[in-house]
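REQUEST ID: PR-0412
SUBMITTED BY: lab tech R.K.
PRIORITY: routine
TASK: structure prediction, single protein chain
INPUT:
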Amino acid sequence: MKYNQINRLILFGGAPLLAATAKMAQGMNLALFVYTSPRHIEEVLDDQGNTLKDELDKLKIKYCITENINQEKDELFQQVDANTLGIGMGEAWSFDEEIIKKFSGRLLDFMGIPHPRYRGGAHYTWMILRGDKIGGCNLQVINTEMIQGEFDSGEIVKSVNYNFPESARIPLDYFNAAVPQEINFIKEFLQEVEAGKEFNLHFPQESQSLFLPRLNTIEQGWINWAWLGVDIERFICAFDEPYAGASTLVNGCRVHLKTAYLDDREKAFHSFQSGLVVRITPEEGIVIASSSGLLKIKRVLNEIHQDITMQLKLGDRFYTPYHQLEESLLFRANYNAKK
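STATUS: complete
OUTPUT:
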C-alpha cells in the first residue's frame, strides 16, 4: 500500500507519546489537530505534574475533548481529505464505520507492544510480572471489527520490536525507555510516507497472540504474602510509578509499597514468617522476610500518599486478608472516556 503525501495529522487519544508525537509533527510542518477524552486531557504525563492539556496548550495545538468521537463528525470530516492521516494512541473510544470509511485506510492505531502479544491493557505491568523485556511498535489499520482495548484484526502497516534495558524495573522505566523508540518509529513512518514507500500489509500472527486485560491498581494490586519472594518483588515493581503502588495492610491500615528489591543471599524464610519486618535501616528501608530471602522496601505510603516508612516497627507484619485477594482476582477493570 502507498499513501498520498500527508500534510495533516490528526491524533486521537492521550499519554506521553501523543504529546511527544505532536511536538515532533510540528517540527515536520504538518497541520495538526488532537481529539482526546476527559480522562486523557487531565492525565499527568511526567513527574512535574504536567497534564496533556498543559502540553498541548504550551505547544499551541488545537484540540477537542469528547466523550464520544463518533459525535464529532461535523468538525472531523471537515479536516479529513486524501492527504490526512489519523493515528490513534490509546484512544478511549471505538470508531464507527462512517469515520473509518472517511479515512479510506488512512486511520491507524499505534500499539506499543510486541504485537500480537500483550493485547488488552496494562501492558508494562503484565510484562514486568513475567520478567519480559521485549517491547514493540506497531501501526495497524483500524477496521470496523476493532474494539479499543479488547480486540483488533486490522492489517499491520509497520512493525518493529526492541529490547528494554536490563535496568528497567517499574512501569515508569518502561514508559521512559519506550517513548524515544516510539517517536523514532512514527517519525520514520512519516518520512517513509513522504518518500513514497510501498508498505507490505500483513495480518497479525494469531498463533502468537496473548490477551491480558486492563487492570485497576487500587482494586487489583493486592499482595499475596504466600507467594515466593521473587513474585512479590515483581508484583510491587509492576504497580510502582506512575501508579499508586501495590497494596497490603500493616497494623490494620492499608499501605502502598514502592521501590522493592529482593536480596536472595539470605536463606529462605518459612511461609509463616513471610511479611514480618525483620530489620529497618535508613539505607535499606523496611526489610521483610519472604520465602525467597529478604525483601527490601524503600517506600511505604499511607492512603493519602504520605511516606510512613520510618514509622514502622520491628516485628510489624504486612498481611492481606483472603477475601481481599479473592476480590482482586475477580475484579474486571473497565475504562471509558470519563474515567
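NOTES: The longest strand covers residues 253-263.
REVIEWED BY: pending
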